[in-house]
Amino acid sequence: MKRTDGAGMHDVLSYALVLSLAFPVVALAQQQPSTIDPGRLRERFDFQPEPEPAPPPPQLRSEPAGLLPDSLKAIRVTLKEVRIESATVLPGNALQARADSYTGREITGADILELASSLTAMYRNAGYILSLVVVPPQSLADGTLTLRVIEGYIARVNVQAGPGVSAHVQEQLMRLGEKIQASRPIEGPVLERYLLIANDFPGVELRSVLAPSQAPGAADLTLVANVKKVEGFASIDNYGSKYLGPTQLTLGVVGSQLLGVNDQWRFVGVGTGNSEMAYTQLSYSQVVGTEGLRLSAAVSRARTQPGDVLKPFDVHGNADTVSLSAAYPLLRSRNESLTARAAYDHSDVHTEVLGTRVIEDRIRALRLGLSWRVLDRLDGQNSLDVDFSQGLGGTQESDVLKSRVGAKGVFNKLTFDYERSQFVGSNFSFTVGVGGQWANTPLLSSEQYALGGRRFGRAYEPAELVGERALAFRIEPRYAGGAAGMPGLKSWQLFGFYDIGKVWKVGSVTPGTPASQSLASAGLGLRFFLEKNVVAAIEAAWPLTKSIASYQTGGKNPRLMGSLLARF
């Protein structure tokens, strides 16, 4: 028989051979295609909510008009000395050095205004956004100029709550306001951090207004809060695999402030419209305190029953996971954020063939990570996620049903993912990404790094290749256009992509399986952004190197894929 590039028939023959010759069940575990691993569905469908756009910055008051008396506007005087009053937070010598550059020469009223503005800019650049340097009424007969610093602060915080904003959330907003009030003079980073933390409250949409206060040199801050109780999305696509799909139907629903304690419920359900695959996840999170700490708990369940040529073998996969996590914003600003997180995962994964259990993994893992987001000087949006995972037990080295020879529940690995989005002009943009993983010991199947699917290897099926170590790259150039008068269409986007990646196995490998494998793909497509928050996409993707494993023939033919997503 001629050997094909794909592995679909190879999988069937492997199953049949193992069963007919009564090989040990561990041998069957090593032949399972990674694309049907139920333990991998969580990483594919653990949709994170899109980050809320930052609220508009509070409108800062402008410098008070007319602080320079009319009698000084036409003055010309030789300046001998500049005295600066009420300066407490900036080094006096720095302010004085700037002021002294105006002494020893004739100045005008315009020069005085310029000096006051220059000193004000020093405060603003240092983050004191409400501080001003003003010129009080005075005589300049002796050549001495006095400038007064008004180190601005927030005197009062008011909360205007819309429908659905609970008393608990209002109290939390007031406590955030107290944090802002405690910063005297008010610093821009402090104001920005707590306004953004408030906007991160589940479902809360925040607007802030600054108004002059009756207290000298102060402003009053009003927080206008509304809440969106329910939102979600529904989608259909053919991004699945030949064995589990490829059609996928997804529904996601988010309920915010349902208990009124800064809480959020999230549900995600994914299915194929038949019995081949079903995934559900329910999570609960709550923001605790006034520093943005978010505690979460989630349960998920994956069920698989691969079809196509694997259907006669009645393969059933199951994965149940409970996860507890915490996230804390170490840094929170409009241009840069750094979030630390910790999670504990408790997963049980098993697969049965013809009623006989052939794979059983138990994963108990602690995961520590950092997420960094920054908008740089080139208006590029950068994101970097780094995670360290430490296995705490579960599967033992002696377990014969584990998914990987030499693997066990005690392990460690380091994973990273970097992405940059950059606009080039008004219509062109591109996104590049790099991801990978490092481990020194064999890992259970669902802990290996996967190539194939929407992030790396888009022409291939999800988890086409897996390995303990991996490195991958992708790039997607885009061109955006307007609706051009087409009804229902808001805008469109033409895109192309290229991705490449390689995985390495650590430890022993299945006979006939190379210790390292790679893939590459390319494609192009169109996205249509429609009215009522609907997005449609269609793309053609070409496998450039290896054939798609599940295809008995035509494993290098282009794949035509599409999706339709609606948000509500």
What does this structure look like?
The protein is mainly beta and 568 residues long. Among the domains are: 153-226, Roll (Ubiquitin-like (UB roll)); 288-567, membrane protein fhac: a member of the omp85/tpsb transporter family (Porin, Beta Barrel). Helix content is 14%, strand content 47%. The chain contains eight helices and 26 strands. Strands 9-10-11-12-13-14-15-16-17-18-19-22-23-24-25-26 form a 16-stranded antiparallel beta barrel. It has a three-stranded mixed beta sheet with strand order 2-5-4. Helix 1 runs antiparallel to helix 2 (25-31) and helix 7 runs antiparallel to helix 8 (188-199). It is elongated and about 100 Å long. The chain starts with 7 loop residues before the first helix and ends with a strand.
Précis, in short:
The protein is mainly beta and 568 residues long. 14% of the residues lie in helices and 47% in strands. Helix 1 runs antiparallel to helix 2.
List keywords for this structure.
568 residues, mainly beta, Ubiquitin-like (UB roll), Porin, 16-stranded antiparallel beta barrel, three-stranded mixed β-sheet, 8 helices, 26 strands, elongated, disordered N terminus
Please outline the helices and strands:
Elements lengths: L7 H13 L4 H7 L9 H5 L24 H4 L2 E4 L1 E5 L6 H9 L4 E4 H17 L6 E3 L9 E7 L2 E9 L5 H15 L6 H12 L4 E9 L5 E10 L2 E8 L10 E9 L6 E9 L5 E12 L4 E12 L10 E18 L3 E18 L2 E20 L5 E14 L17 E13 L3 E12 L9 E3 L13 E3 L1 E14 L6 E16 L11 E15 L3 E10 L15 E9 L1
Parallel strand pairs: 2-5, 6-8
Antiparallel strand pairs: 1-3, 4-5, 7-8, 9-10, 9-26, 10-11, 11-12, 12-13, 13-14, 14-15, 15-16, 16-17, 17-18, 18-19, 19-22, 20-21, 22-23, 23-24, 24-25, 25-26
Helix pairs in contact: 1-2, 7-8
